[in-house]
Amino acid sequence: MHAMLSLDLDKKTTAIEREKFYAHIRGSGWMKLAKVSTTWFTSYKATVKEDRIIAEVKQDVAAAARYSGVTAYDAVVNVSPSEPSLF
Question: For residues 45 and 73, what is the distance between their CA atoms, to the nearest angstrom?
Fold first, then answer.
């Protein structure tokens, strides 16, 4: 299973906060999609249920926000058996 995450951090987010947020997300196993600046993906075992993946994604984003000092963001996650297709 794969999860794709798109993030928009608040416009008031500083460059340092953004860098720390992204570093924390990377440390949680997320990879940024090339050429799409606010979209990330990660993989899970095929047996992991969608609701558990979504809950873990929310935890990863919330933890990155706490770590970096980011107070506002918008995020969307999509769970699929396929990796995202980049073009």
Answer: 28
Indicate if the pLDDT at residue 34 is higher than 90.
no
Q: Residues 12-49, buried b or exposed e (16+ Cβ, 10 A)?
A: ebeeebeebbbebbeebebeebeeeeebbbbebeeeee
What pLDDT, on the 0 to 100 scale, is given for residue 42?
A: 96
- 4: burial class by Cβ within 10 Å (0-12, 13-18, 19+)? buried
Which uninterrupted H or E stretch holds 22?
Answer: helix 15-27
Question: For 38-60, what is each residue's pLDDT tens digit?
Answer: 899 999 999 999 999 999 999 99
